[in-house]
Amino acid sequence: MVILKLYGAGYTSCTRRVATVLHELKVPFELIEIDVKKGEQKTPAYLEKQPFGKIPYIADDGFILYESRAICRYIAAKHPAAGFIPSEPKAHAICEQMTSAEFASFEPLVALILRETFFKPMMLGTTADLTVVEEPLAILENLAAYDVILGKQRYLAGDVLTLADLFHLPHVPYLAAGGSDIMTRKPNVARWYNELIARPYFLVYEGGVKTTTAY
Ligand SMILES: N[C@@H](CCC(=O)N[C@@H](CS)C(=O)NCC(=O)O)C(=O)O
């Protein structure tokens, strides 16, 4: 069997999003570490595979795919029994509703915070300017809609775990590391979050993503 190759950086959220789904579905994979700091993702050889010059991408028996969420959908589609992409039309639509909320509303806010408090210090050696993160943090602090949704059901798209839940997770530890307690202040969000981080795949956040050939 040809092992799936994940080209990325173990500490980044997009790479961890893909690794989270791979781990959940017990898919063996090899992580090919891309040196983002040195700009390896902008080299001609890399751009041939990922023309946007971003990580991650996968090679699955010669099939190349980029965009972390598209990769997760592909992997989940290959393992339909897990139900990460519901097949019943209404359940499917509700899952899409929440993956859209993640992509359009949650991710852009968290990305602003992440860039200022984690990537800029790491890449440029600068100190975080906390005034930049005040507004996105204030919006996120609310999380009111999430608490309402999670007050009615166990997970974001209903009572079964789906990609909607998994897509939200990779950014979240950075919020906690940045001193924010927004994931644990609202009771229903806290219940959901604590359940998710207790799952074994959450370990990928601690040591970063690593090649995993067996489960
Ligand atoms: N929407 C893309 C975003 C990819 C992305 O922005 N990757 C970041 C790391 S999380 C990256 O490649 N940063 C280095 C760069 O922009 O050169 C995805 O989900 O895969």
Automatic annotation (TrEMBL):
It catalyses: RX + glutathione = an S-substituted glutathione + a halide anion + H(+). Residues 2-83 form the GST N-terminal domain. The keyword GTP-binding does not apply. The keyword Transferase applies. Residues 88-215 form the GST C-terminal domain. GO terms for cellular component: cytoplasm. It is an enzyme of class 2 (transferase). GO terms for biological process: glutathione metabolic process. Keywords: Transferase. It comes from the Eukaryota. GO terms for molecular function: glutathione binding; glutathione transferase activity. Its EC number is 2.5.1.18. Pfam families: GST_C, GST_N. Belongs to the GST superfamily. This is glutathione transferase. It comes from Mycena rosella.
